[in-house]
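During the second year of the project, the team shifted from modelling isolated chains to modelling whole assemblies. The rationale, set out in the original proposal, was that interfaces cannot be judged from single-chain predictions alone. As a representative example for this report, we include one of the complexes processed in the last quarter. Its constituent sequences, exactly as entered into the pipeline, are reproduced here:
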Amino acid sequence: MQRNSKNKLFQSSMTKEALKQSFIKLSPAKMFRNPVMFTVWMGTFVMAVVCIWIATGEQSQGSFTYNLVVTTVLFFTLLFANFAEAIAEARGKAQADSLRKTREETPAKWIQTIGEMYMDEIKIVPSSQLKKGDIFLCETGDIIPSDGEIIEGLATIDESAITGESAPVIREAGGDKSSVTGGTKVLSDKIKVVVTTEAGESFLDKMIALVEGASRQKTPNEIALTILLAGFTLVFIIVTTTLKPFGDYAQTPITISAFISLFVCLIPTTIGGLLSAIGIAGMDRALRANVITKSGKAVETAGDIDVLLLDKTGTITIGNRKATNFYPANTVDENHFIKSVVLSSMADDTPEGKSIIELAGIKPSAYPVHSPRYIKFTAETRSSGIDFENTRIRKGASDAIRKLIEKAGNSFPVDTADKVNMISSNGGTPLVVCENENVLGVIELQDIIKPGIRERFERLRKMGIKTVMVTGDNPLTAKFIADKAGVDDFIAEAKPEDKMNYIRKEQNEGRLVAMIGDGTNDAPALAQADVGVAMNSGTQAAKEAGNMVDLDNDPTKLIEVVEIGKQLLMTRGTLTTFSIANDVAKYFAIVPALFIASIPALQGLNIMKLHSPETAILSAVIFNAIIIPLLIPLALKGVAYKPIGASALLRRNLLIYGLGGVIVPFIGIKIIDILVTQFI
Amino acid sequence: MNTEIFGIILMYATVLLIAIPFGSYIGKVFNNDKTWPDMVFNPLDNLFYKLGGINPGKDMNWKQHLLALLTINIVWFIISMFVLTNMSWLPLNPDNNPSMSGDLAFNTAVSFVTNTNLQHYSGESGLSYFGQLILMLWQFISAGCGIAIAAVVFFAMKENSIDRLGNFYRLFVRSCTRILFPVALVVALLLVFNGTPMTFEGKQTITSLQGDTVQVSRGPVAAFVAIKQLGTNGGGFFGPNSAHPLENPSYVTNIIETVSIFLIPIAMIFALGYILKRQKFAWIIFGVMTIGFLLLLIPTVINELGGNPAIARMGIAQPLGSMEGKEVRFGPAASAYWSINTTVTSNGSVNAMHDSLTPLSGMNALLGMMVNCFYGGVGVGFLNFYIFIILAVFISGLMVGRTPEFLGKKIEAREMKIAMIIALLHPLLILAGTAIASHIYANDPKTYAGWLNNPGYHGFSEMLYEFTSSSANNGSGFEGLGDNTPFWNIACGIVMLLARYLPIIGPVAIAGSLASKKYIPESAGTLKTDTVTFGILVFAVIAIVAALSFFPALALGPIAEYFSLY
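Output from the structure prediction step:
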């Protein structure tokens, strides 16, 4: 639903709110945050005083009307800058509100606890009363009242309110898909959920606070840029202040309005006025891409990423691997092999495990076993299985099983090893099954690479980002898929600490690393990475560890985030360049105007042939004011990023915003001068 | 081809032919690589290390480097103050010249310490030979310090340099003994062979053809002039500097002296390429500087060859161009070439009177000093350029959507803060200084009438020039300004001190801070700094900063004069 409003930049309701805010933001306490615009504020104030002074009979400062017009234009410069910030905030807020609406007061079926005991008694409470650690029940048709984690049951859930995706998803207890989001709707079945966040502390709440400015902090780049802008402002303070004695020497009286006009025109008001709007718009664009960021810095850092770690499953390949073939070892009976395979997968609730049973075509209940003990998959053993009576069946990666049987003194059959290699080199994943440390055979799992993924990696490469595929597969399989998908590097047979080590290694060499993860296993790596994007469907631990949450659960979303980050920096850079380049034309308008009366020779500098000193100064300040609203759409949308290499990009932006910034104001000021002349 | 133009091309080509290989030699000297003069200089340097109690192998961090530089400067400053205020009774004073007054001695000592050599005195009457020798020593020390501190920044720009930035005393000694001294010896000998005096005897009495007797000042001129040119010092032995017939007797000595101005500033760029092993980067820097230099030079030469319209209106033909204030033996082209050479490099020696340049040439001379990094002073020219590189890297980094990084080091708020302060300093000193002078003069033109022989636009240019020259540590003067007064001596002294040390401390602090950061390897997204595009951006930053800071001041001075004259 929020996607429909994506293309419309100004909605009337937002505009109205933004207009109101533009006035509220005139308070000096708020203006003080932005040094460039604060100096404009002071200039406007001085001009207002000058207007009153003239009204009381002062003769030396020019006509009252002229001074009033200058004051008004300066006032509008302030309003325009405030409007830019306000409209960016309004857009961000509207976006956040549409998300928040979904989680307004919903009744929650709270399961009361007495001590450690859960009672079956259910009490209906408003969602705002749920505390962290509370447990609630959701049944078919219920709206989930709060973010949480399923502790019991399985349900199909409609998450379209958050993600805009209409296909329902399945969430179930245990595993990495146990997380539910407040505001989504249970379509079938029944789940028990434990609340994981206090009311008002969810990521969305944090994001809304960021957009609304309450907790918005300046990012490091923004601080450095503010220093640059403050530096330029100081240069122009020096230039205009020293002009007074210079004027005295040349016996040229300069009016206060001329001083202030020159100063306001020269200081980088264009970028100064749009700076915070650009930052907010960056976070807003992230939100529109359905990514919740925990800080503005995270978005910026995303633009600097050098290395991107991607899980193979679900990112590079479609969903999960499926079992496609059973290869029993030479000496093993096929039926026995299939039976063992089914038994070993009985308790395996991963999609791979389910696909194995599907391929076998036999329900596990066909093989009743006594007192089974299920061995869960762990990242350390990288195998799972079942123990019953005197039988131990294990299923796992070939090297893990090889270790197991060699430890028991048995040998790994040659024909099975051949099969393993064959499957691997075709991009499949071999799963070796053994019974009592004797190899029974191999299961082939196959991956399907997502269409279009190669092109996306190509785009990343052009941005200068190295892609690394992380997979539990053996190196042969990994290489096959890596080549087919076009990633630059891969980590095969990855254990959780491998990811961590890889990130550390790259970081030690000075690179910035981003990764996407969902499982609790991923949490340390997500925290270590410079940009960690957690899936919304992932576990709470993962979401806490990362600095962004992707509501769409789309692992390729990082590509968009990187572009948003780059756009953010580029918009700032190009508008700064534009703002400073504008000064050349403004000088040619104002400097001759200041001195022409006493030094007629300086008419030679009036290359725009502006009508009179007054119209020249007015045209320059008017241009300076209206360029701000004209650039608001660009500030909100961001400068388009094209992966054409840094030097080509610099050339392009330098030509458009640098050279353009020199030329445009010459034309603009001339046109305004012609218009202003009509009114005299 | 016009022989005057040919002369210019010859001088520039000669500089390049020598400077490029000489740059590699400088690089080797700093890297401690083997060079052929080692057998002579190794024992000599070791003697200095031993005498000074220096351990030349001990690496310093950037703060220790600055401390060493300041120590050397302070000690010698005190000694010079003593000598200048007591020369009258000290030895080597055959002409019995008097000691300096306190404020003049302060101005003179500061101006030589800071490599400015703004001379509010005339050497032939204001200094004893001992005073001249002390100042000559300073021409080595200040140049040597500049070259050595630039080397520190070069080292800091290397990958993984961290705190291994060499030993300042060692760099300083090597700059003096292996770079400045041998070349100065060669230049001085060439000058002696061409008629420049070199003696410790006092004034000579000669009888002219008309039978009058003339007292001719002389002294150890050749040695003084050689280092004055090579170290971008510019302080002349005689008042009129290299326009004086004994300081610069012929067109041949003029070629030698002009080549000496540019030799080390250009060679330093190639030394950078050698030390960083980034020749292309060095060529881009050289390209930016050269384009800036040519943009100032070409209009100046055209203007000077074109003559003065005010004289043309009097019906006087000017076949040679504008000859006011110029020496007939050099002509307007070679004089225009010198005037831009000396202002872009912070040298400040002159072979013609800048006060008499046509208005736009005067503006170009001013611009050369306002930018102060188109080649720039020995060592320090690159430090000024470095600040502009940092600003350009920052803007370009943002423009390509990446946190700005320079040679693999991230530029953050701290570096920007220092870079902005240093970029601000030069306009602040020039404009504030000129503003104070304008204010004083405008309030009471009668009392201060002695300051300005030409009130009006030209008088404004004279005051602007004096502060620009001080702040650029250039030292040349738009003569015509009555500048030996306590106000000008002290104001210019303060400006010179601030404009010398802060722009050294700033870049060294940035380079030191960058050196200690983690090195980020290059990727396809990294903006390369050795491309023409980046060169254009650096040039644009330099041009915009200069134009925005100085346009109103220039409009009231040379530009107003131009439009009223033409």
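Chain A has 22 helices and 20 strands. The radius of gyration of chain A is 33 Å.
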